[in-house]
Amino acid sequence: MENGDGIDDEIIQSLPSGVAMSWGIVKTSRRGPKGELSIKKIVDAAIAIADKDGLAAVSMHRVAQSLGFTTMSLYRYITSKEDLLVLMQDAVCDIPIPPEVADKPWRQEMTEYVWATVEVFRKHPWFGDIPITSVPITPGNLQVIDWMLRIMRDFPLNDFEKMSFLLLVSSYSRACGLLARDMDKSIRGGASPEAFSGMNYSAALKQLVKPDRFPHLHPILMAGAYTDEADSPIGNDLDFGLERILDGIEQYVQLKRVGQG
Fold this sequence. Notes:
TetR family transcriptional regulator, DNA-binding, mainly alpha, 13 helices, Arc Repressor Mutant, subunit A
């Protein structure tokens, strides 16, 4: 049966409750303190705790304390911690999507997409600690996916090819995001960028890494490329890797255009 919004209630019931709440299609209890609590306030408070102390610090009790309410007051709005995590994840994915700009190069757009998503991991270090359990199905996540698909709207690709490129680029974003997050955490903890790169251990590694055991790594280590002792002719590793991914996409798209011409 459809409700007034044209949504089939029976189909919607198949969604996890946290996902349904992210879409605003689950009515919350009205028994709570009128006008003083809301799903957004609870989620925002939980995000603030996670940003400061990590995901493990988030509990319904601590979130309630931070807001000045009892734990039971929160359960009238969000029924479980699992649902709260879903809502937190979706909320931080609700990032500004750049407007369409005529003739903007698609490579530039994809680069902006990657570094915008990497920034989510840096701003909210706990984000990468939430396990992936399905394809994205909450609106914040899907808006970011829609952005990437918009970039590929004129590519001569079928839907499955576009989704595969989405997975490729998003996986690179996630890898870079986790790396950047861990580097930020290390530096905040007092480590130097040189320590993170391994430069501080270069002399020791050169004593330990022998050519008979590590025949391919040894010359790279001795040349200073492994621990960033030597100046890199390719610039930033992550930028270089992304450019090579985009090269591959560009070549594939060109081949498809030739094949369809």
